[in-house]
Structures are given as structure tokens and as C-alpha cells.
Amino acid sequence: MPGDEVRPDERRPTRRTRAALLARWGLAAAASLLAAGIWIAWSPRRAPEAPARSHKPAEVAGAATYTCPMHPAFVTADPKARCPECGMKLVPRSADVAGEGKAPERAALTGLGAIEISPERIQLMGVRTAVVAREPLGATIRAPGFVAVDDTRLVAVSARFPGWIESIGSGHVGQLVEKGDVLAQLYSPDAIAAQQQLLAVARWTDPKAPSGGRLAGNDYQRDARVKLELFGFAPQDIDELVASGAPNRTMKIRAPVRGFVGKKSVLAGAYVQPGTEMFQVADLSSVWVIVDVFAGDIARVRVGQQAAVEVPTYPGERFEGKIAFIYPAMAQATRSLQARIEVRNPGLRLRPGMYGDVTIEVGKSLAVVVPAEAIVDTGEARYVFVAQGAGRFEPRAVTVGWTERGKAAIVAGVAEGERVVTTASFLVDSESRMRTAVESFGGGAPRR
Description:
Elements: H1 15-42, H2 58-61, E1 66-67, E2 75-76, E3 91-92, H3 95-98, E4 115-116, H4 119-125, E5 128-131, E6 133-149, E7 154-158, E8 163-168, E9 176-177, E10 182-187, H5 189-204, H6 218-231, H7 235-244, E11 250-254, E12 259-264, E13 271-272, E14 277-282, E15 286-294, E16 306-310, E17 319-331, E18 336-344, E19 355-371, E20 376-377, E21 382-389, E22 392-397, E23 399-404, E24 407-412, E25 419-423, H8 425-440
Antiparallel strand pairs: 1-2, 1-3, 4-22, 5-25, 6-15, 6-19, 7-14, 8-10, 8-13, 9-12, 10-11, 12-14, 15-18, 16-17, 16-19, 17-18, 19-24, 20-21, 21-22, 21-25, 23-24
């Protein structure tokens, strides 16, 4: 019937058409299964993933403990406590430092992940490992310093009575003078009067008369001599005065110690009054080395610690000393605290103003130690690669305490007995970053 005709778009597929469609979908499914099988066969075998670690704070599992980076043996539950040995602030103690057999906590390292490397490629890369050990490790602090005059050996030569400078002898700035050298000669009427008093006592008294006699002169001569010594006369000048029997027109201003003239404040012909400083003489047989201790090391520095100074003027030589004083205030410009080291200088080789490197010995402590070259330092993070066997290497964030002679103390991150990569760490680091980057895009890489 005309009303019952089927339009072309409403026609049902024939049996032959349905069979062709089924065959087409079957071929597509077979191709997909074949591609999946090839991909699985080509992809590297991965070691079973470690069970997820809990990121709960230590307080959930048990009481948190804290330790000193310098003295790991000291452990406390008080986070505000200070180390009784060195006064440093405490850090959270990881399981490896505690030595309780627990696995160390893993810190997330962006862009890094565990990798597997074939034995052939490990040999080709030259990867070497070392065992993490617990051993005594001496700690040192290196800081810049400069040589300064020892204030206790700086002597001012001042006038003790009014007068005029007749002449300048050895008192020129920078000149090395011996004790007793004449720095200048001073004319003073008061000095002449004091000399005449001693001569008068010596003339009218008899030093051999018995004590208490009218002409006994022991006490009078002694008093007159002491008066001249208090005026600044040297003993040899007083003896010369008594032997000659006549007063000297000028008084000799002599150097009180052996050293360098650091300051000259008078000229020939100048008038001086009592208390006027004329010269300064610096005894450099012992000097100070002022060292700048940065904020992170202040708590480790104490009075009495041994220190050594090396200056570019004498390569390879070390001048030994001890910390004698720590200044109370920090320098605002450098945020450092200055410490004073006393150094013997018998040959006068160290001169004020010299700069050098200072090494301070802060003592030995038992610590978890790795070779310093095992630590990868990016500036933002420090980590090592832990060898877990079968060519598997895991990056591990570490907290470094101090270093000495190629070894570094690890406060947290690795445990005693583990193995860390020491050579070719940068190659392992590059491999880890490349694998992690590829996997982050959903891809994979074959074991190499």
C-alpha cells in the first residue's frame, strides 16, 4: 500500500551488512589487543612498589625526640632545649640517628625518583658506592680574619711634667725600637729642679752614717731618687746623674718596651703638658686575630678553643692560637660575631692589617658519616643516592651537620650500614631526573 512504503533512511540493514560490520569491529579489537601485548612486552619490569609511608607527625606514633647536630648522643623530648655541650639549637632526630633499626624518614625530592640501572651501564658510568659508618669526626669552622694589635701590649708614652721637645730620636712612626731607646729629648725646668734636689741630698748627707743620725742620707736619697723615677727618668739616667754630679739640661724620653712606633703626636720644639701623649709603641711579640663568626656557627664557638691562622703572605704556614674573647654584639652589616684569638708572634712576621683564613677546632663527636662527594647539593636541597641492590638507586634527602677532610656528618636521612653512591653521582642524578620526567608524561623507558 502507498501509505506503508518504507523510506530509504528507515531501511533495516540486511544480514550481509550486519556480518560486514561485525567483522570490521572484530579486526579493530584484535589490533588493539595485539598493540597492548607489544607494549607490555616492551615496557621495563619494575620492582614492586614499597608500601606507602605514613606522613603523620612523629607525635602520632610516639613522642618526638630531638638531638644536637654536633653531639648526636644528646637526646631530649623538649624541642626548646639547648645542647649542654655546645649550646646549639636541637633538630628532630630521625630513626637512623637514634639507631633503633627503623627505616629513615624519606623527604620528597621534586623531579627525582628511584631508578634501576643495568650492571653493564653501572660499569660504564663508573658508579662506586661506600658504606655509611658511625665514627668520631672532628668539626672545624672556617672563617675570615685579620691581624690586629694586642691592646694589652700597646703602650702610650706621655709627658709627666711641662716642657719643650728639644729633639726627636728614634720616635718615628713605623720604626722598630728596643726597650730603652731614646724617642725624644725634653727640656723642663721642673726636671732640672728634681735633679738638683737629688744632687743636694747626695752632697750634704753621708749614706754610710748609722740610721737615725743627723747626717744619715739613705732615706733622703731614696726619696729623691724615687721622685725622679716617678717623673719618668730611667735608672741608667739617674746613675749617670749621680756619677757626673751635674744636672742634665734635657731629659731622655725612652721606649718602655720593644716594639714598633705606631703613633707620634709631637714635633721638635713643641710644648707639652703633663698627660700629653707623645708616642705609642706596639709590642707585636703577641698579636690578636679578629675572626668573623657567622650566625650559624656562633653557638659552636667557645673561649679556649684551638684555632689556626693562614695568611697569603706565608703559604702553607699555620700560626696557632686560642680563642681568648668573644665580643658581645653582632655586626649589623655582616650579621657576624667577632671572636678574638691570641697568637704568639716571636719573629714579628704577622703584621697588623694582614688578612687570612681562620680554622677553629670545635672538637670531635660520634656521628653518622659519609664521603663528602656523595652529597649532591643543588643549593635548595641536599641528597644522596642510596644503593638498594639489583641496580636500584633511591634519592634520599639528608641533613648535613659538618664536614672535615672529605667526610660529612649526616644528622638525618641515611642509616648506618646503608650504601651511598660516591662517584658519578651527577650521572645517576641526571638519569633519575630523566626517568622521572618521562614517567610524569605517562610514558616509560626501558631498563638500561
